[in-house]
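Q: What would this chain look like folded?
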Amino acid sequence: MNFLRETWIVFARAMRLSLRNPVWVVIGLVQPLLYLALFGPLLKPVVQATPGLPPGNEWQIFVPGLLVQLGIFGAAFVGFGLIAEYRAGVIERMRVTPAHRLALLVGRMIRDVLVLVVQAIVLTLVAVPFGLRAPWAGVGLALLVVALLGASFSALSYGTALILKSEDALAPLLNGIAIPLLLLSGILLPMSIAPAWLQDVSEVNPIKHVVDGVRAFFRGDITSSTSLWGLAFALALVAVGVAFGARTFRRESA
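A: My prediction, written as C-alpha cells:
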C-alpha cells in the first residue's frame, strides 16, 4: 500500500505541473495533427497507385503510424524535465525521503502515459472527418499499444536523463536513436514498398512490428499474428524500459 500511495503522490505532483503549463501537451499534439492535415491527403493517390501496400485505405495506414510516432516522441523527451528537476534539487530532496525508488519513476510514467492517451484520442477523433474508419475494439487496442510505448520510452528517457544529467548530452543521444527507429519502422509509409535490403534491415526494428500490429488493429484483424506480434513487442519494450529505468533510479539514489 505504501508503494501505491507514494506512486500516487508522485503522479499527482507531476500532473499538477503539466496542468499548470499545458503548452507542452499542445505542442506535442500539433506535429502529428499537421502531418494528418498536410501529409495525409497526399497519400490517397499514392495508395491507389502503389501495389504491395497493406490492406485498408490511406487513413487506416497513416493514422496508426502517427499514433505510434506520438507514443515514441511524446515520451522520449520527458527526461529533459527530470534534468531540470535534478538541477533544481528536487530529486535530491526526494532521495532523502523513505519513498520507494520505483514509485519515483512509476508516478512520472503514469502521468506521461495519461497525457499520451488523451493526445492519441484527440488525434484519432480528428482523423474521422478526414475519412478514418476503424472498429472501436481495434482503436481501443491501438490506444493500449500507444500507452505501452509511452511507458517504455518514458522509463528509458528518465533513466538515461538521470545518468547523463545534461540536456546537451541527452538531446543528440535521443535523436540519434529515435530517428533511425522512425525511418525503419514504416510509420509514414509501410516498409512493404521498400527495397528488399531495407525490408530486411527493418525486421530487426521492434517498432516496425508494433506499427504493423496497430495497422492490423485498425483493420479489425484483432487476433491475427501481425497484431499479436505487435502487442507482444510493445509489452517487451515496456519490460525493458521499466527494468532499465528502475535499475537506474535505484543505483543513482543509493
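The chain is about 80% helix and 0% strand.
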